[in-house]
Amino acid sequence: TLRIFSNLISLQCEQIIQHLNHRIPGVNTVELCQRIQTSGIELNVGDLSKIANIVSFLFSTAARNHLSTEELITTLGNAVSVLPKHAVQVIRHVWNEQGKSISESQAARNMATVGQFVDIKWKLGVAMSSDTCRSLKYPYVMVTLTVADPSGQITDKSFEMTIPQFKNFFRQFKEMAAVLETV
User: Fold this and answer.
1) Which CATH number is 116-181 given?
2) Residues whose CB falls within 8 Å of the CB of residue 30, separated by 6 or more in sequence, listed in order
3) Which of 83, 103, 126, 177 gives a 20 to 30 Å CA spacing to 89?
């Protein structure tokens, strides 16, 4: 299980580097955490997200300041005292292999302060009844947005809209499309 855990931490570090190089929108820690838990290792999504945020910050800082591997590992040790030794070794290995690939572009130096859109899913539903009303027949649209926050963590944001709210939402998208046509 130690080797499986090391492989999954390595995968997370590689995804962080890809994110910093703007090749992928973010790191899906929920999916990675499920894979870790399936391998029999107890780790929650919150802890894995914290590790991903710290490693992402350290990788981008190390690239910007041209830190050596040892300087990066020392900084990592100061930031995360509870990180297992084998995880630190994996991070060191990934940084040695791929750290230099992190782009030095202005975009990589100044990570965005807003999230990035990844995907949208929607469905139309009808609430038939509730404990207070036997016959609702209330239509609604459920929307799930998948976004990558500025640190690269991929999350789903879900919300429901009434039909009038959806029509307003749709009208605003049509207005944006019309403006984009003029660009």
Assistant:
1) 3.10.450
2) 45, 154, 155
3) 103
Please give the angle made by the CA atoms of 118, 42 and 84, to the nearest 5 degrees. 90
Domain boundaries, given as residue ranges, for the chain: 1-109, 116-181
Between CA 24 and CA 155 the distance in angstroms is: 14
Number of helices followed by number of strands (H, E) in the chain: 7, 3
| Separation between Cα atoms, residue 97 and residue 93, nearest integer Å | 6
| Whole-structure pTM value | 0.59
* Through-space distance between the first and last CA atoms of the chain, rounded to whole angstroms: 54
Q: How would you write the pLDDT of the chain (183 residues) with one tens digit per residue?
A: 667 777 878 888 888 888 888 788 778 888 888 887 887 777 778 877 877 887 887 888 788 777 788 888 787 776 666 667 777 888 888 888 887 777 554 444 455 555 677 888 999 988 877 777 777 778 889 999 888 776 667 888 899 998 899 999 899 989 988 888 887
Q: Which of 147, 155, 153 is nearest to 12 (CA)?
A: 153
Would you say 17 and 102 are in contact if contact means Cβ atoms under 8 Å apart?
A: yes
